[in-house]
Write a structure and sequence with these properties.
elongated, 3 helices, mainly alpha
Length: 99
Amino acid sequence: MDTISLSQSLHLIAWFCIAFLIFILALIARFYESSSGEKTRYQFYAIPVLTLGFASARYASLNRWGGDWVGDGLSFIGGATLLGLCLFLYRQMTKQGHH
């Protein structure tokens, strides 16, 4: 029976921590949508959770922290999506871009 290495464990722990933080952001976006009536697209926060989760699983299965084009691509997509969603929410909540 194979055992899980420290590196694999750290990948999974890091992903759970990141997923938890993204979940908190989605809850903030959902609360803002329900209180302001503006669409925040909080459902799309599942995209970075899933893509970063798949990337983390890929890295854990290879027992690596990077250097795999599939894992790196999924990490990029997840990070870029999260960045876009955070900027969108920030602009909505601070009314930037709404002149």
